[in-house]
Amino acid sequence: MRRLDEKIDRLAEDMREVKLRLTALETAVGNLAATEMSHYAIMADRADRLAARIERIETRLDLREQA
Question: Cα angle at 63 between 52 and 53, to 5 degrees?
Fold first, then answer.
């Protein structure tokens, strides 16, 4: 009976460790997703600014097609 209790205690400790590691992994994945969204927003902003600059250049050089 004592050996069974020791095995159960070891399993319980292993489960605590697995839960801690899983929580750390979930946190890292959440941070990664937030970072990816931040990078996407930055790139979208840059693309918008570049499009505006190209539009101004085309207008200035009279390169825009008339609709």
Answer: 15
Q: Which two tokens stand for residue 24?
A: 């750390």
Please give the structure tokens belonging to residue 53: 């600059």
Instruction: Examine the pLDDT at 64 and tell me if it is beyond 90.
Output: no
The position carrying tokens 């930055």 is 42
CB burial readout 33-56, b (16+ within 10 A) else e: eeeeeeeeeeeeeeeeeeeeeeee
Return the number of other C-beta atoms located less than 10 Å from residue 25's C-beta.
10
Q: Give per-residue pLDDT as tens, 7-49.
A: 999 999 999 999 999 999 999 999 999 999 999 999 999 999 9
Q: Which amino acid is at 17?
A: E
CB contact set of 57 (below 8 Å; sequence gap of 6+)? 63
